[in-house]
Amino acid sequence: MKIFYGVQGTGNGHITRARVMARELYAAGFEVDFQFSGRPADKYFDMEVFNGYRTKEGLTFNTRKGQVSYLKTALQAKPIQFVKDIASLDLGPYDLVISDFEPVTAWAGKRQKKKVLGIGHQYAFKHDIPRKGSDPLADQVMKHFAPADIGVGLHWHHFGQPILPPIIETPAFPERVQADKIVVYLPFEDPHDVTRYLCPFENFQFHVYSPEVVTSKYSHIEFKPLSREGFQRDLYDCSGIISNAGFELASESLQLGKKILAKPLHAQMEQISNAAALEQLGYGHAMFDLDSAVIEDWLHDPHAVRVTYPNVAKVLVQWLREGMPEIQKDFVESVWNDVEVLQVRR
């Protein structure tokens, strides 16, 4: 089977999930071509696994100081280029189109009457799961941004719905953790604001990953450039993570038993809903603005949760090999039966 696989590249979570899927698809003998959209072509990094991927401009959301601006998003969109990208994508040689919430691929598949399989967290929102911060515009964006004939939604818990656990790496649990080490990933926030809110806590070491080049004057706050390898190394032995409420990073943190403080993007329904789900499940804490009091309480809270997820990518690739039969209740239950939730103290 020959697959065309489109991936939303605005954040790193979609790409992280695609890396896991790529390895399982290649191992199963599938021929896969990848396309990424949502950021400039020179801003992608650690992409070797995708074997000669292509990029398109696509659509992305404009953010400033931790908030989505739908007005600026609309003003900066290039609808003519978007339509041209859809029209120029020839999916004729492919047996299946997969979209991880990537709009050019999804709409090209729809236009060419190709079966489109959507895999990702966003496709879980067609089911009854925790949802906050919704409005008619957000609902329409979620529904029409990257439409799929079959949507496989992913979440940290099933909530009684036909959705699957996250697609993530399944590394060994760290034997030793540095109790004072905190990883910070707030790419949509002003780094100077981040520094101002972290600087009072001199008993902790903050490793801040940022898309901007920033020099810190504080010995306990170190800014680092975006790097998949470096980030994973720091995430592995830290005690907790402060981040926006993206799905994939929280999933990796839960798998490693890290405590989580999520700061969702304002006016971004998915992230606000993620923060609500983390709190509802008891998997993490949330703050809706940078807040020193909340950060301090969280830093001194030793409680964390470790959620061990199975290799969902391998399960899905086997499902593809079987011809994508209708997802039944017993199939979903069999996957969730392999999930284990443990309480951890740091």
Write up this protein.
By secondary structure, the chain is of the alpha/beta class. The chain has two domains: 2-167 and 310-339, Rossmann fold (3-Layer(aba) Sandwich); 181-308, 3-Layer(aba) Sandwich (Rossmann fold). It is 34% helix and 21% strand. It is built from twelve helices and 16 strands. The chain has helices at residues 12-27, 70-76, 79-88, 103-111, 136-144, 191-198, 228-237, 247-255, 269-281, 292-299, 312-321, 329-336; strands spanning 2-8, 31-37, 54-56, 63-64, 67-68, 96-100, 116-120, 150-153, 181-185, 205-210, 221-225, 240-243, 259-262, 285-286, 303-308, 340-345. The strands form four sheets. A six-stranded parallel beta sheet has the order 3-2-1-6-7-8, with helices on both faces. Strands 11-10-9-12-13-14 form a six-stranded parallel beta sheet, with helices on both faces. It has a two-stranded antiparallel sheet with strand order 4-5. Helix 3 (79-88) packs across helix 4. The longest helix has 16 residues, at 12-27. The chain is globular. The N and C termini lie far apart (46 Å). The model has no long low-confidence stretch (mean pLDDT 92).
Give a quick set of tags describing it.
single chain; 346 residues; alpha/beta; Rossmann fold; 2 domains; six-stranded parallel sheet; 16 strands
